[in-house]
Protein 1
Amino acid sequence: MAEVTHLGEKRYKGAAVVEEAKEQAVFERDYSKYDFKDPTDRYEYIGKPGLSREVIEEIAHIKGEPKWMLEFRLRAYEIFLKKPMPTWGADLSAINFDEIIYYARPTDREARSWDDVPDYIKRTFEKLGIPEAERKFLAGVGAQYDSEVVYHNVRKDLEKKGVVFLSMDEGLKEFPDLVKEYFGTVIPPEDNKFAALNSAVWSGGSFVYVPKGVHVEIPLQAYFRINAASMGQFERTLIIADEGSKVHYIEGCTAPVYSRESLHSAVVELIAKPGAHLRYTTLQNWSNDVYNLVTKRAVAYEEATVEWVDANIGSRVTMKYPSVYMIGRGAKADILSVAFAGKGQHQDTGAKLIHAAPYTTGTVTSKSVSKDGGRTSYRGWLKVAQGAHHAKATVLCDALLLDEHSRSDTYPYVEIDEDHVTVGHEATVGKVGEDQIFYLQSRGIPEAEALAMIVLGFMEPFTKTLPMEYAVEFNRLIQLEMEGSVG
Amino acid sequence: MTDRLEIRNLHVRVEEKEILKGLDLIVQKGEIHAIMGPNGSGKSTLAFALMGHPKYEVTEGEVLFKGENILELEPDERARLGLFLAFQYPYEIDGVPLSRFLLQAIKARRANGEKLPFGEFRKRLLENLKKLRLDESFATRYLNEGFSGGEKKRAEILQMLMLRPEIAILDETDSGLDIDSVKIVAEAVNALRGPDFGCLAITHYQRILNFLKPDYVHVMVDGRIVKSGGPELAHELEAQGYEPLLRELGIELEEGAQRPSKEEEKEGVA
Amino acid sequence: MTTNGTSAQTNVELWSRQAVETLSRERGEPDWLLAWRLEHWEAAQRLSMPGSRYTQVRGLSLEELTPAPAAAIPGEAASPPRPEATAEEEGVAARYALLDGAAPRIERSSGLQPKGVLLLDVEEAVREHPELVREALAALPAPSDRITALQQAFFRHGLFAVIPRDVSLEEPLKVVQEVTQADRAAFSLGVLIAEPGSSVTLLEELVSSREVERAALHVGSLYVRVGRGAEVRVASVENLPTRVFHFARRRAVVEADGRLSWTLGWLGGRLVMSHVETVLDGPGAEVEDVQVFFTDGRQHFDLTSNLLHEKPHTRGEVNVKGALKGKSKSVFWGLIRIAPGAQGANAFQAERSLILEDGPRSNAIPSLEIEANDVRCTHAAATSQLDEEQIFYLRSRGLSEDEAQRTIVEGFFEPTLEKIPLESVRERMRELLHRKWQGTAGAKAA
């Protein structure tokens, strides 16, 4: 099994018994509390549903943005109107762009200390364990509540080294030249309808810059919360890891349950300069009425490594295919994607590897579990462009179907335009073996627990890339999803 | 009385074929029983049926353990009652480290809130690994994934030592092991020996019994126990094979059933 | 531009609605068949040429082609060359031959008659067993591209065979189709019905006695029904001239406990687009699909194999292997679909290409759509190059570079060739692969 490089974690150095001890020590959270909502009457601004030029101008006006950004937004809006909805993938017919609220501003400022965050919002993030996590094991935290980032902080020692971790809005204010240079270069608005929509109405997200040679050994985290009903969250993240630097960025997402659809449509652009090591981890647990349509793409220069670690547990529909353009010789991409689709969910996820330089290496590992009629689809694109000789790519897809009503699809496209290339794709679909369950049961573990254990083991390649606390949280989420799966 | 495993007139079918045809056996705590028998006599079926594998259908008879008819129970309930099965061919569970699995299995046993202090779990795990001549890192490996045949068998015994059952069924745990490993396994079982532990060792060969020293030996043929006796019975079988006994009992078997199959022979000396 | 002495204007007429009506009337076809042809003619007007981002049909202009006529054109060979050996001497139950989509000839061995096997050209079958033909045509899926639609509108010939219940044909049926004329569009539509409990082998050959100087089109389709418990083997070797565009559609419906094997060898042609679809339509139905290809020059092969598991406890296995040289291209599309409720299905699909030198391109899109959980489905696709180390090793044992490469390529194909159930086809494939190797090796030397 391929060894995954850990960013400053010492988790696997000792025997597993040590790991168990840590797991035991980790705080237990009440997960039913994801589903709570705050009233919106205290918001500073809440937009009316629907999208128009005026709405976009209003957003830009409230934010006090430079002119080029408003022009960028308006250009993107025109593209959004022209682009058709995707005709493949998940069913998006329930999305009504006129009923979505595109901008809601819960507070007028971004706090640097939790004390300055409005109480009701602070309580939300406390329930989700964010301040506690920050104290314990994070290098920096950003917290976004509907459209705006309400809290942002990075450890002082990292700040001194020049590490920038701001909301995208603050980033635009403080580093206008850097933002202007890179913003929208990895994912232009023309890319797809939802990238255009995000470009038109984006708000919040993170701006990260890690200077040359700086290693951020513990993760930076952003937490995204949708609170208002029919809300559209359109955060925009840009991460630049300069030469030889190293950083691990983690995002988590939750929302309360409404009976109306919400839309989350983010754009995430990553730039890994020569020799940089950039890992981006997502733990997506939106409520089951969120349409999660996200464009994520990275550019990896010479000898740079980009890792997308992407878990999709929540949302009604997710369409997300993190990609890495390996444009420098020897660049590496590692995409690890796990998806869990329960009742009424369609996780249409995948990965794109674009080998555009010689000696580039790409790996995709996809693990999906479908249950109670849920559907998971893997959609992949593996491209070896002309000139990318000696590229190596491996794609592995495994799917587990937990019952007869569920569905799993695999659509891996492979396109090779170069000689001396080694490419392999493998996929397997199956169910949990009756004998495996019996074996675990024979040790005293009840059937439902045994099933959950096997599912967690199936997803272990993902879990083991996570810092301990996230691994525990992820396992708990899966266990929750698995509850009641044995009649 | 209540601390024994009592099998009465057990009939078991696998995929429409009757394998056990009225088996009676009592295993008292504190005793070690060995079941020997030719291929296809139903030894493994007995093990799976006692543990409650869904493919093994009990059509008649009962199995009492601690006074309860365990045939009504789920496999995990049987395990929590104190029954253990060391599998002949343990299954591989990818991504589940052995130590995490053991912890969860122990927790499941202590459902009534009784806690196992983590330090104690760790201490016991390290002790038992040592006992089985297994490296500490063995516990971090995924359950049976990529284990060699011998490692799988030792992992089974490790689980037995950690879970401390009252009655353990060893289904050909000795097959496929070299003589040193057989010794290690037998020593581990012997370590549990005492008034609180009973064992039913199913085997094809005499050699493990040299170390295990059973109190009783039973011969199983065609789904029934046909003869029971003391340790001397095992020696007799070793020396003469099954033929004289079968002749004496007037039982005829299909050609080739008396002798271990070629693969098994190979496995036996591996 | 004029071709073959016929103006483009006339050619347009040859593809017109009237042409379809004339064809049908001349053959005295029933109304339903004319309606069926016209329906497909209409479809052809709105459908586009087959293709994808990986494959485009280039260098083929339908307007410049002449559909195969009712009979051979004067001056051309009147009928397929008659082999020297009789069907009986060749060890086949029957032979069916077509020349450029026309002039069918059937030879039956004497043993065939008493078994009640129905063996006709489809034109005759329409006259004598219209209800059977109608049923078979109704089972064909609606065409999704212009070529298939035109084939269904303009087809004239093809083998129509019905193997009665519980009849086992020891000797194979053999179909030989030759393509010898440039600027010709040759169509064939074959039907093979194996009634419950029967057993039959169909050998197909697509060949030519000579090089074709300009583009030609050959479109062949075959519909197979494997009745309950029946066993059908279809083996085909395609070795068409290098300017021929070949489109093949094969579809089979396998009923409960039926077994089907496809063995397809692809060697010739400019562009080959093959579509194989097997519907496993009853519990216990099984299919094995073995395909081998070898491309060179500017050949482009686009091969599809779809396994549709409609019922529980069905089994499918697909093995595709190919070697590529020159500037050739291959595309493999695989699909395993398990319908809801088809529990206990077992499906395997593997595609491997070996790139023998700089230049060729190979793509694979093996998809899965799984809607039942008690299943085992695996697919794999891989592209690799000749291993320099292996070549070096063999050369160190005294083999020339060419011999070393050939040895490796043979080793690459061998496990797949071994899966071919018919000894004769296996040998023929070995021979053709070998010859193709020599051909390219020779061309390189020249």
Protein 2
Amino acid sequence: MYAFEFTRPQTVAAAVAALKGADAQALGGGQTLIPTLRQRLASPARLVSLAAIAEMRGVAAAGGVLTVGGGTTHAAVAREAAAPFPALARLAGRIGDPAVRSRGTIGGSLANNDPSACYPAAALAAAATIVTDRREIAVDDFFRGLFATALATGEIITRVRFPIPARAAYAKFLQPASRFALVGVFVAKSSAGVRVAVTGAAERGVFRWTAAETALAADFRPEAVKGLRMAAEGMIGDLHGSPEYRAHLVGVMTARAVAAA
Amino acid sequence: MPKDSGIGASVKRREDVRFLTGRGRYTDDINLRGQAHVAFLRANVAHGRLRGVDVAAAAAMPGVLRIFTGADFAAVGGLPCGWQVTGRDGQVMKEPRHPVLAAGKVRHVGDPIAAVVAETLEAARDAAEAIVADIEELPAVIDMRGALAAGAPLVHEEAGTNLCFDWGFVEDNRAATDAAIAAAPHVTTLDLVNNRLIPNAMEPRAAVGDYNPATGDSTLYTTSQNPHVIRLLMGAFVLGIPEHKLRVVAPDVGGGFGSKIFHYAEEAFVTFAARALNRPVKWTAQRSESALSDAHGRDHVTRIDLALDREGHFLAIRTRTLANMGAYLSTFAPSVPTYLHGTLMAGNYRTPLIHVGVQAVFTNTVPVDAYRGAGRPEATFQLERVIDKAARELGIDPVEIRRRNFIDRFPYQTPVAVAYDTGNYHATMDKLVAIADLAGFEGRRQASARKGLLRGLGVNCYIEACGIAPSHLVGQLGARAGLYESATVRVNATGGIVVMTGSHSHGQGHETTFPQVIADMIGIPESQVEIVHGDTANTPMGMGTYGSRSLAVGGSAMVRAAGKVIAKAKKIAAHLMEAAEGDITLRDGKFTVAGTDRSVDWGAVCLAAYVPHNYPLAELEPGLEETAFYDPANFTFPAGAYACEVEVDPETGRVVIDRFAAADDFGNVVNPMIVDGQVHGGIGQGIGQALCEGAVYDANGQLVTGSYMDYAMPRADDVPSYVVDHSCATPCTHNPLGVKGCGEAGAIGSPPTVVNAVIDALQRGGHRHVTHIDMPLSPARVWAAIRG
């Protein structure tokens, strides 16, 4: 780890101000950033911890919308979203291990947009709105490919608003070593239709499988997607699975998510 | 009723109290006054000519004390190899120099180029990044077949070849084996890979060097399974420090699995640097550094042919193996694919003709050496896999084909040099059939099928050679060390006992089990016996712990030393009671004159030995302390039968192990609970190899699996609850405790069990084209195999 300055502001406004400094970096739960720093792969001049900002924590359900503070840990979501949005709670409860869940935050996960992270699938499938210190971003405009988002430099995710789907589930197939999603599929059915979001599989990061959405809108049963084939082109290939394998798993996991929804 | 003390009792591990409460004292816990820290600059290319190392800018950085490069070690020795293998052509193996810091070339990613010693670890790391190594990258040889191809780049130019040796065993049987296979009614052939593993002990390696200018003594604290061996290798062959001026301490060690047997460059470096700088120098590996510097395990590519008659009787076995040595010969690397592998190729079976061929190959990868089982898992895997395939081809039940070929008369001379002293393979198979509930398999298979899952059953046997080893035998085979063990039993005046043993405990529980033996011999509570190990300054010569040898060899030395103590104590007791020595018996801590009620207790005799007021001083020296060395007459041969049931998800290829049963014959057992734990751990590692683990290099020699993001360690939910039994005991015939060793069995026996079960599941599921899948059986590989 290289040396850096460390600040821990109490408010979003103070954090935004602190992030205006040269080479400043926001620190959420640190589950990606801290290992990166330890390996000396990043050298920010200043870390701005978001952990002390009370207004960024908490889970609240009202009017069919679940609002999660950007600084809310996975463990808190697993616990507090269990009644209003059980599919999201189960997703949060299966991220990493207890230590990761007690530190990692939803805002950190979405802002990092790791192609194998779980939360991007939930946000995209549930048509969430990403609320920042300065604006609201519809999720369809948020993810911009591998580790890239619509966030500007120094912009902080303060809340995430999820319209609660009528039926939803997340099916994750684990990468054997990291236990990130080798393929994860979040299926959400609401009055607006069906949305299917896939994480882990594609080189461009989380994406919607529109063919499955159309099929499931007509017939929300696992059988409806059995005949669909995801193309291997654009899928990730590595020692844990070929593009063909991942493409195949997208179909399997989609059917399993529908069965569980 | 279960015993609560002594041999056979499941005494709780006394050392766990300190391990589980954070009071262990590991090498990294040792911080000496004035200690400096070292950071190594390691090669980031697999193969390259080292044209120069510019340390000027780095040396000027704050806190830097000195930067060392290969030139600083030109005058000292290279890291030695402890075993010389002679090839079929009569030529000894190629043994290129292994410098402490790279000289002239770098030969694998992770090869240390320079070492920065600084006031703090961060300063050392900062400076290491500022060193400019001028490396002309050369094409790397990673794949073994590629390394042996004509015109391949050479890892060591001076060797003239990447072939370290070409070994045949037993060479006299080569032609007859070929002929028997050519003429056999049925030959089953299998090509397989025994996957490369990264050891991943819980405690990373660490070393602290210290030098005392007042005495000229050097001390090395290190994570070692055998501190005396390190003292000898490093002192005599690398740094030229005589053993009486060098102390090596291996304090609490958090797991080794073989990887901490070997002498590593970092140990020699900190010892050398401490003397050069006159300050203690400390190094602790980071986890990613461990993956690039700990010796890896396995990495064999094999073709095995099994010739059978129509009834499934084995006629001949022929193996052709490429064994990866990595870039340099690690301490015991040449012994692993040869004498620890070829000698076990008979398995539990009568096979009249066996020929094992092994070509050892240098590649631009981390050195490969012994890892839990060391050669025996490789032998067992190929044999038990090819038997399974043969059984299927001939339509014989896999249990039945094994029974048809079991060795059932002992002693048994195998055609691969070793002679099994005892065993009962039918008994362990009978036990396995019962505890694994093989009769209930079909019902469970149908239940799985209703869930859309394919259930399979894998069964196999294993044998291993432990208690290594008879020194005269291994000497003939190329070992440059004796493989005895020693112990000193020191009785204090008040009757308490300290046993100083050359065996090293790094998780095995010696501090609990060794006192159980002594307590039984004398009849005193275990709490009166303390075990001291791991320090060359206070234990006699020791060869250390590996090859499941601690109790069989180290325990035997201890029993012998305790026997000498008891013999002397009887003389003292006879004097005290004015009786004939031959009439004295020792029982329950009391010496009695046979046929009388006269007795004197243990404590009184001990006190007399140290306060010799009434003592036969003319015939007997005062004191009560004896040392013994024990050199085994033979290997021990633990054996067993394992069964595993898996469920395969045909949609995803995911394998879940549902049941696992192990019936082992370890001979006599001192502590059944600890033996259960050793078997559990071994099977867990075997399951790791079978389903999860595998070190992968890309074509350029970069380690793709350099972190836990990509190297899959088995976790708690990857393994089932085990059913373990070791009641089918045939005691070893040639050591005093009748023990055989249990530390590696699980890791040896279990990989083929898992693979056999997966293949069985796929075959029963109609995927008849799948006859083998190489480990690890990851979901992606199983799915790809199903797809064909």
